[in-house]
Structure formats: structure tokens, C-alpha cells
Design a protein that fits this description.
43% of the residues lie in helices and 15% in strands. It is of the alpha+beta class. The protein has a 4-stranded mixed sheet with strand order 1-2-3-4.
Length: 216
């Protein structure tokens, strides 16, 4: 990570102003760049959100490979879809982990969300954004996976680096696999640290892409 990326992440995490409040987004031109970078991180007009998603997916896949766990990226499973849109929207699993639970393969589905979603609402609770994102993924895909003899694993994270409970459980089990294959306790540390670093690396790229002449 470069010095500029590191500074951008520090400002974003510490909620230090990154952009002039009233500047229009140079990409979608529909909203204003809020001073803390939330719009810059979640603007969907450029493939920044997909880049972050794919970066975290690729790093998670590499973590699984390093742990000796058999898996495949973008694996076609022929049943993941949005129930409201029909089978025309069939999509692959972000990561398919072979024989993960009881001999069944696991479909790991990643999603990222802002931890500040609902901040202005009455009764805001810290951490609610990723738990809602996780619940939404479960509601959409778990039943279909079970019916097709697969396990569903939602992997939800927020842009501050927090992980939802199912994602934490998944990585802890990966750690157990690593622990069984190595005598060094420190050998397990890369599991969480690499995923966390990938999330922040993706955020930094999004922030800098939105305003290349940003002064940090």
C-alpha cells in the first residue's frame, strides 16, 4: 500500500474530511461528494465497488489455497439466483469450497456495506449494517442452497473492516485448518489480517479514483 493510499484510509477511518462537501461527484454527477468519502466509496457508476468485491474475493480464495482448502472462484452452480427475478439471473458462487461441511460444498457469497447505513435514523446501532447485509444474503440464497445439497456461507463486511458473525466463524474455521497443518501459532494470523488488508486496499483505490488530485 502506498503512502497516499495509507493516508486516505486513515482519514476515512478517522472520519477526517477528504472532499469538499458541495463538490459534485465527478463520476455520476448526481450527488455531492460528502466530506468523509462515503459517496466516493459507494458510488456505483464506476466499477470501484466491484473491484473491491473482487479483490477481497481473490484474497479470500488465496487464503483458502494457502490453508490447503480446496476451493474454486466464480464457480457455476446453476441454482444461485434472485427469487424475484427468476432463473434468467443465474450467477456463480463467489467461492465454492469443496466438502466444507458434512461432505457438502459451501457457496461463499461476499457483500460489502457501509457501517454508517442508517446513521441518521432513530435507534441506530453500531454494527447493524453488516448484520442486516448478512441476513439479506441468507434470506436470498440459503434455502436454495440447502435444497441443492449445498451449504450457504454469507461473507459480509463493512468498509471499516468489520466482519459479520458468519464471516468470522468461517475464518476461524480456516484458522483451525491452518493450525492443524502448522506448529507455529503465528502461522494462523494471516487469515484475518490478509482479508482485512484487502478490504482497506480496495477502499483506498476507490477513494483515490474518485478525486485523483486529492490533497492528503
Amino acid at each position: 500500500m502506498s503512502v497516499v493510499e495509507y493516508r486516505a484510509i486513515l482519514k476515512y477511518r478517522l472520519m477526517i474530511s477528504l472532499f469538499p462537501v458541495d463538490d459534485p461527484c465527478p463520476v455520476c454527477r448526481k450527488c455531492c461528494l460528502d466530506s468523509f468519502g462515503e459517496h466516493a466509496v459507494h458510488c456505483k457508476e464506476l466499477p470501484g465497488v466491484k473491484y473491491r468485491h473482487d479483490l477481497v474475493r481473490d484474497v479470500l480464495y488465496n487464503v483458502l489455497k494457502r490453508a490447503g482448502i480446496s476451493a474454486k472462484k466464480e464457480a457455476p452452480v446453476n441454482f444461485l439466483t434472485d427469487l424475484l427475478e427468476g432463473r434468467s439471473t443465474l450467477r456463480p458462487a463467489d467461492i465454492l469450497v469443496f466438502g466444507w461441511e458434512g461432505g457438502k460444498h459451501a457457496c461463499v457469497d461476499l457483500t460489502g456495506v457501509s457501517p454508517l447505513v442508517g446513521l441518521r435514523d432513530h435507534g441506530f446501532v453500531a454494527g447493524q449494517a453488516i448484520t442486516k447485509a448478512e441476513a439479506g444474503k441468507v434470506a436470498k440464497h440459503e434455502k436454495t442452497c440447502i435444497e441443492n445439497q449445498h451449504v450457504f456461507v454469507p461473507f459480509a463486511f463493512d468498509t471499516f473492516g468489520a466482519l459479520a458473525p458468519d464471516a468470522v466463524r468461517f475464518l476461524k474455521r480456516v484458522q483451525q485448518v491452518v493450525s492443524s497443518n502448522t506448529a507455529h501459532v503465528k502461522g494462523q494470523n494471516f487469515v484475518f489480517s490478509r482479508v482485512g488488508f484487502a478490504i482497506q486496499k480496495g477502499i483506498a483505490a476507490q477513494l483515490l479514483a474518485r478525486l485523483p488530485d486529492i490533497s492528503l
